[in-house]
């Protein structure tokens, strides 16, 4: 028994270590000492306590379920208590805050997008390798994708029943199959839940928006002497998002940090003057349009239109003066600084989507005997998201208005005569568009699983097995409203006056098909009939279905022993079929229905009926594709030695052979070892693996899109069809993954303390990537026959096929640190228990080689415009009493740069090049967020709680190069601000 003084010393020493670790991370130290225990230790410890073979030990990084097995693959675990402390209405947000999770998508990403199909999709990404390279499982089983890229939607999971989440931060492809290049995230449900529990929660931001309401319930009961069990859960969650503030240089609902950041970029040829090529500016003014219209070229350049169409002189920023040819003296195309910012559209992008999720889940099981359980699960889920990509419908200097147009003010008509012109170039944000574009993806999942698990005897030992048959479908209905048809808009704004004084569309074909003239010169009343013609009641629409069918069988056993103990073996087989079909509306797709004069999409002679692309945005195209996968694996864990002096060590190896109907056969493997040394609590681990990612459905069978393009080949210019299609000849991506680490777990001299350090190195080759038409032509000219085969510059119909190719490379290396210390305060005469936890990821290098001629490898580590900062860390300090608990947490993103290839300078700059552009400021801030939460047990069944995220309301740093609309990076930083949540948990 230690004295109170000894306990105090231990506590103070550990607190000092955690403080040093946090300080080291925040100072960008090169060798910090950080945090967290390995989940496998905890799983093994619980397993040793004894549990029924029908509920096997979960070791996500491996298929081995041997008692006491410690896997070599680093794994972080969040249990139900950890998730409750986070108090997020969607536990997806709790997972993405982990340092190793980088590049995930959620409510705040892709909000400026109309056509991506990723809006409102909650998918996980490890180490900035993209969600397509992180395998996400539910109870160790695959889940039907919610997108053509093959990624799952965490919002469709039964979250109130999640018992733990295992995050494997290393390759696990040999154990679980394709896509586990970056790692595996396994959501594990409580399969034997009994009783009733519920969670009720509400919240909003400090700005009075993103109101949130959540109601989650679960019920479970056993029957027939505990042999039959049923569990049912239901949840409805609404996060209302942040509405668009529309035009002007303002943030939503008083978020004063929005300042419209951008880069001004000079031509490379001008950088011989010693000044930088790029200038990092704020309050950027796009001078190719104004809110209600601006003449952008010619002798009348700089004339804007305001209330009732009255012309006035536009106020350019930077004291700019129009030069008559489209440029502005004192500005750098297309931006000035300051001036009239009323037409700014960046702040009008949805900052956080309106997302509603509804999930119904049930699991029923029955033990046929002591050795066999059969079960059936049903998961029905629906997510409904909404976002506004931008206010209005900006037209950047690409419209032509005839001077004779009857809507042109008399003073401008006279000016046309005086200047000898008959038309002028025009740009507008179209600020009087009545309603902003709304994108509304609705995803409905139906997933059914029937399975069995148990044990049997054979070869002189007892084997455990699990098997399942899964079929899932995700139906995605993506609708866009309040959006214009470009050909109709162009005809409607080209108006003339007939001899009888009536104003009509100039084109007689347009008039005969319903065209009514539209006045866009100034803040004027819009004709309802003209709006109905330009903005049809039914907008772009994409219907798609993802289908997945999986049959899997796995067994575990210890068939023999060697000199050091029993050898465990796991083997299994799996067959899977993935398929999808997508249809686009005829105006976007370009193929009209069999009966074109339908009420929704009537035939129109103005529209392109062959290639489509008639909408302002959201031109969806049809596609279909499927592939089959058959695979088998074997994994073995063999003890190497076991002694009191040397400790014990094991060898863990696995190999998987996979046959794809499209990409052919591929082998993945892993080999690793753990050594529990003779030093108290110290263990070393090492694992190397070959992991694969097969091309997904969208890469193989992409919907075809055709547009016209000009390319230069060997000095000659060719006008070609740019045909975007899939590539069925793609090969799997191959990753060599290595990890080495050490773990200090629960030493006798500091019970409750765990620390770990793991170095990782991921080399990915044959990375599937896409290129532009000119890039493909250049690669062909350089001798790459794969690209030459995708183009034809000889035939009468010349084309370049834009396909994905296996040409790029990636290498990501760094280290993870985790730490945990739990202790009771009873030894120092205080109530309760304290838990200190810290996690950190240091990305040393993330090198991406595109394969494009004329480019150099790009270093992404520390680029805060992307997904991989140098440091991402998370710390928490929790005190738990019998009735009250309090938790204080910190989330840290280190400062970084815009690009590691930029050269920062203000004077005496070198000549800028395509590989190394010069810039006046290449620094991008980081952020530290503070969160506070607590709970109070009203009685044994009811617990009230609160949570405040981002207590100090930290402003997101400017991100001028991200194209997110509102000029910040939502994949890395908090954009919503301070958030308050309160709720109650019921447990009976």
TrEMBL record:
<dbReference type="Pfam" id="PF00593">
    <property type="entry name" value="TonB_dep_Rec_b-barrel"/>
</dbReference>
<feature type="domain" description="TonB-dependent receptor-like beta-barrel">
    <location>
        <begin position="445"/>
        <end position="951"/>
    </location>
</feature>
<dbReference type="InterPro" id="IPR037066">
    <property type="entry name" value="Plug_dom_sf"/>
</dbReference>
<dbReference type="Pfam" id="PF07715">
    <property type="entry name" value="Plug"/>
</dbReference>
<keyword id="KW-0998">Cell outer membrane</keyword>
<keyword id="KW-0472">Membrane</keyword>
<keyword id="KW-0675">Receptor</keyword>
<dbReference type="InterPro" id="IPR036942">
    <property type="entry name" value="Beta-barrel_TonB_sf"/>
</dbReference>
<keyword id="KW-0798">TonB box</keyword>
<keyword id="KW-1134">Transmembrane beta strand</keyword>
<protein>
    <submittedName>
        <fullName>TonB-dependent receptor</fullName>
    </submittedName>
</protein>
<dbReference type="InterPro" id="IPR000531">
    <property type="entry name" value="Beta-barrel_TonB"/>
</dbReference>
<keyword id="KW-0812">Transmembrane</keyword>
<feature type="signal peptide">
    <location>
        <begin position="1"/>
        <end position="27"/>
    </location>
</feature>
<dbReference type="InterPro" id="IPR012910">
    <property type="entry name" value="Plug_dom"/>
</dbReference>
<dbReference type="InterPro" id="IPR039426">
    <property type="entry name" value="TonB-dep_rcpt-like"/>
</dbReference>
<keyword id="KW-0813">Transport</keyword>
<feature type="domain" description="TonB-dependent receptor plug">
    <location>
        <begin position="71"/>
        <end position="184"/>
    </location>
</feature>
<keyword id="KW-0732">Signal</keyword>
<comment type="similarity">
    <text>Belongs to the TonB-dependent receptor family.</text>
</comment>
């Amino acid at each position: 028994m230690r004295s109170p003084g000894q306990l105090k010393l231990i506590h103070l020493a550990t607190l000092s270590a955690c403080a040093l670790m946090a300080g080291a991370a925040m100072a960008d130290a090169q060798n910090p000492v950080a945090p967290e225990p390995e989940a496998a230790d905890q799983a093994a410890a619980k397993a040793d306590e004894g549990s029924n073979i029908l509920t096997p030990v979960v070791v996500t990084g491996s298929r081995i379920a041997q008692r006491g097995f410690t896997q070599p693959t680093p794994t972080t675990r969040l249990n139900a208590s950890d998730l409750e402390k986070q108090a997020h209405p969607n536990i997806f947000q709790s997972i993405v805050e982990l340092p190793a999770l980088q590049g995930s998508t959620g409510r705040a990403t892709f909000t400026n997008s109309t056509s991506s199909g990723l809006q409102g999709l909650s998918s996980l990404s490890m180490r900035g390798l993209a969600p397509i390279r992180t395998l996400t499982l539910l109870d160790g089983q695959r889940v039907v994708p919610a997108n053509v890229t093959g990624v799952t939607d965490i919002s469709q999971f039964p979250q109130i029943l999640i018992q733990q989440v295992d995050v494997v931060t290393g390759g696990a492809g040999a154990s679980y199959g394709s896509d586990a290049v970056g790692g595996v995230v396994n959501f594990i449900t409580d399969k034997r839940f009994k009783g009733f529990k519920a969670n009720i929660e509400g919240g909003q931001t400090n700005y009075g928006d993103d109101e949130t309401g959540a109601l989650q319930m679960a019920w479970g009961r056993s029957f027939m002497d505990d042999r039959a069990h049923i569990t049912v859960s239901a949840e409805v969650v609404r996060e209302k998002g942040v509405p668009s503030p529309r035009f002007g240089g303002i943030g939503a609902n008083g978020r004063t940090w929005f300042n419209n950041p951008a880069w001004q970029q000079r031509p490379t040829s001008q950088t011989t003057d010693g000044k930088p090529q790029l200038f990092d500016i704020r309050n950027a003014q796009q001078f190719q349009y104004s809110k209600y219209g601006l003449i952008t070229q010619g002798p009348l350049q700089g004339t804007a239109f305001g209330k009732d169409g009255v012309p006035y002189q536009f106020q350019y920023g930077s004291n700019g003066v129009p030069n008559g040819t489209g440029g502005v003296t004192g500005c750098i195309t297309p931006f000035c600084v300051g001036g009239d910012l009323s037409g700014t559209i960046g702040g009008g992008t949805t900052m956080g989507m309106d997302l509603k999720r509804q999930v119904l889940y049930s699991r029923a099981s029955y033990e046929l005997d002591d050795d066999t359980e059969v079960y059936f699960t049903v998961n029905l889920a629906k997510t409904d998201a909404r976002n506004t990509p931008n206010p209005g419908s900006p037209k950047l200097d690409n419209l032509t208005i005839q001077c004779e147009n009857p809507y042109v003010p008399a003073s401008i008509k006279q000016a046309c005569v005086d200047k000898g012109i008959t038309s002028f170039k025009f740009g507008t944000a179209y600020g009087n568009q009545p309603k902003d574009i709304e994108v509304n993806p609705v995803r409905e999942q139906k997933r059914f699983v029937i399975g069995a698990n148990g044990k049997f005897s054979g070869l002189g030992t007892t084997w455990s097995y699990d098997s399942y048959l899964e079929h899932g479908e995700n139906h995605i209905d993506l609708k866009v409203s309040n959006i214009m048809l470009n050909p109709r808009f162009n005809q409607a704004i080209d108006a003339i006056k007939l001899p009888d004084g009536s104003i009509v569309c100039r084109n007689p074909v347009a008039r005969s098909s319903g065209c009514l003239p539209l006045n866009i010169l100034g803040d004027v009343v819009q004709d309802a009939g003209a709006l109905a013609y330009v903005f049809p009641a039914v907008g772009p629409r994409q219907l798609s279905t993802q289908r997945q069918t999986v049959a899997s069988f796995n067994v575990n056993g210890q068939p023999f022993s060697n000199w050091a103990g029993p050898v465990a073996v796991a083997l299994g087989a799996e067959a899977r079929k993935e398929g999808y079909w997508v249809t686009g509306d005829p105006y976007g797709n370009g193929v009209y229905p069999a009966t074109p004069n339908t009420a929704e999409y009537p035939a129109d002679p103005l529209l392109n009926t062959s290639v489509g692309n008639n909408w302002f945005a959201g031109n969806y195209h049809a596609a279909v594709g499927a592939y089959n996968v058959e695979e088998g694996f074997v994994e073995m864990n063999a003890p190497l030695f076991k002694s009191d002096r040397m400790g014990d060590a094991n060898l863990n190896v696995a190999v998987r052979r996979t046959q794809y109907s499209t990409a052919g056969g591929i082998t993945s493997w892993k080999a690793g070892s753990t050594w529990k040394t003779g030093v108290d609590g110290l263990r070393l681990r090492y694992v190397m693996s070959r992991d694969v990612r097969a091309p997904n459905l969208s890469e193989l069978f992409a919907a075809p899109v055709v547009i016209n393009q000009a390319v230069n080949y060997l000095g000659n210019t060719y006008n070609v069809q740019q045909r975007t299609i899939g590539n069925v000849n793609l090969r799997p991506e191959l990753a060599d993954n290595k990890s080495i680490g050490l773990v200090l777990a629960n030493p006798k001299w500091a019970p409750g303390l765990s620390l770990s350090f793991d170095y990782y190195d991921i080399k990915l080759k044959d990375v599937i990537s896409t290129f532009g038409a000119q890039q493909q032509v250049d690669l062909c000219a350089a001798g790459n026959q794969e690209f030459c085969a995708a183009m034809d510059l000889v035939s009468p119909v010349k084309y370049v096929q834009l396909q994905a190719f296996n040409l790029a490379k990636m290498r990501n290396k760094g280290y993870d640190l985790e730490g945990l210390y739990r202790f009771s305060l009873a030894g120092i005469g205080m109530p309760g228990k304290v838990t200190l936890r810290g996690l950190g990821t240091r990305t040393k290098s993330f090198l991406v080689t595109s394969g494009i001629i004329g480019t150099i490898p790009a270093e992404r580590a520390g680029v805060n415009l992307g997904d991989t900062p140098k440091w991402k860390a998370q710390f928490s300090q929790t005190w738990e009493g019998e009735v009250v608990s309090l938790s204080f947490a910190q989330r840290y993103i280190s400062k970084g740069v815009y690009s590691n290839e930029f050269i920062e300078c203000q004077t005496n700059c070198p000549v800028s090049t395509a590989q190394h552009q010069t810039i006046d400021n290449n620094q991008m801030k980081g952020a530290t967020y503070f969160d506070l939460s607590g709970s109070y047990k009203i009685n044994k069944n009811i617990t009230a709680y609160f949570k405040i995220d981002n207590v100090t309301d930290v402003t997101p740093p400017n991100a001028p190069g991200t194209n997110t609309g509102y000029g910040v990076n939502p994949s890395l930083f908090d954009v919503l601000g301070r958030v308050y949540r309160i709720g109650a948990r019921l447990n009976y």
